[in-house]
Amino acid sequence: MIGGVRPWVLGVLVVLTALGVSAVGAATSALPAPQVAASTPVTGNVTGPTVLAIDGTAGYHINASGGPAFSSGGLPVGNVTFYASIGAGNLTGVSISPEEAAITGGHAYPTTLRVGATAQLVTINVLIASTYLKQNESINISYNVYVVRPYVVAATIVAGTGATVLTFPVQVDLDGNPVGTVSVPTLTPGQSYNLSFDYATLGLSSGEHTFSISLAGEHGLVSFANGASVYSTTFYITGPAPDYSLWYLAGAVAFFGVLFIFGTRVAARRRGALRK
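RE: above sequence
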């Protein structure tokens, strides 16, 4: 069942300190009339990834402006608040946090979307309320996120028996373009690490594609077994499904593995440093 934005009841409590009837009456007559807020419409948006891998997590920003909460000069005089909920065919493992917050200072508010193991369309539903004194205006906006079965880039990393390798990054490229980075933790002699990177997409064009992993930017003590700093694998796509909605539900997975051997090169450099 697709969840909706639940109704909210806002209560305002005003506390006055009594200074005497005559003093209060005089002060009240001297107060200026409340500032009239602008009549600009309430606007808002959600920004973040439109495609997310199953069991994934991503950050989304919610922003809003306009309405009674802003004066005729564009200055904030009231409150802008958002209320978020999730719509999806299967809500298991799907959530957004926080579900409610105030937007202040013109800065977008960060939220976190978590999705489950079902490939489906997830909709972020947001009610934005702009309030000042007794004035209240609101709008509803939505943002679609496609949850897909990703391509999986996998590799096994093995440290040599004579050296400890400190943490280092591995860059993942698709067809020569960076698509992500994986951080490899410190490895003690002989220890292995299973690297995995999920690439979420609605589909790739037909033809050959190449995933590459590279060691650019690491500390210079790591190489592949053949001494190279890049390892690549090429795979062929026969063509995307004619209906992308079916394509992302079907998903696709591409695996490859590679053995990293650091031993001789890393150990040699560390022994040289110790003699100094």
